[in-house]
User: Fold this.
Amino acid sequence: MLSVEDSISSVRPARGEGGDALGLQLGNLVIPYYGLCIVAGVSAASLAGWAQTKLYRKSFDDLITIAGCAGLGGILGAKLLYLAVSWNHIDWARFWTDASYLSALMSGGFVFYGGVLGALCGAWAGGKIFRISIRDYVQLAAPCIPLGHAFGRLGCSLAGCCYGIAYSGPGAVTYENSPFAPTGVSLFPVQLTESVLEFVLAGLLFLYTDRHIGRPKHGLEIYLGVYAAFRFFLEFLRGDERGEYLGLSTSQWLSLALLMTVGAYAAWNICSRRRERRDNG
Amino acid sequence: MAVASLVLGILSILIALFGFGSLWWLGPVLGIVGIVLGVQGKKDYARRGLAQAGFVCSIIGTVLSLLWYVACAALLGGLMAWAF
Assistant:
């Protein structure tokens, strides 16, 4: 059985060790496809955020501040949820005494939904610290989240991680050199499917504006609800280790919780608007 | 804020390029903090140039740090759980 450090180093980039199937080779340097896709996603999301601030006459600097705080909160949230989920597998004695073990733990293991929750908390904290009203910025930035994530999923598809179930129909993919996906097995292209859905969702959110106020009003709620719904179903098509409780994966339980939260918020919103209308006569 | 941004930006670039053993995961974190401080530092006109330099260095450091990710981090976690 591999040690934690071995398992991490086996998927860390090779620097100056010749090429592998995971990335572009420039001389004796290998740049991973996944990293390239992440950088492309962050760049596209930043460009889209800049365009949104120009369109709705908001400060791009404030958007960067909120996005940065959300990013830090996201990293923290994704890591904390991972540590909570993996609590029983972690050797806590080594955590405090062994630097390489700590590094291996900090380098790998993030849970997306922990990142979403952390990002929301980070954005709220950033707004308080730097005295920025985050309501508008969060709504303007909502389409940028699926846009960046769509590029990330393209990276997953190229690297072979987050792979699908065995499948031999149209669009099936087979990995020959991926250290993550099973070699030579025809698989459902679940990463590409999610990527396409996220691009479509991002496009629709860019087009969405509230007709009463002429700008996006519930973009974030729509994104969270729609993403949770399609992620719930896509989980059935995932072939990698997902963890399971009562027949559903961890991500499916979190998707259901998110859907219920968004649903409850929408219901509360509708009720309060009706009450307001009634009170105004 | 401007000086802190510049320091963090340079640190994130160095970590991204050289890794420093077990510290490579700190690169994106320092870079993002540097970006936020750089943006806020630009509001002080006396140190605007320094803040701008910190902002640019932090962006470069963040991008270089992100480039080294090989696969979805959730999967790295899965591999780690398996290794235990």
User: Anything to note?
Assistant: The first helix of chain A runs from residue 4 to 9.
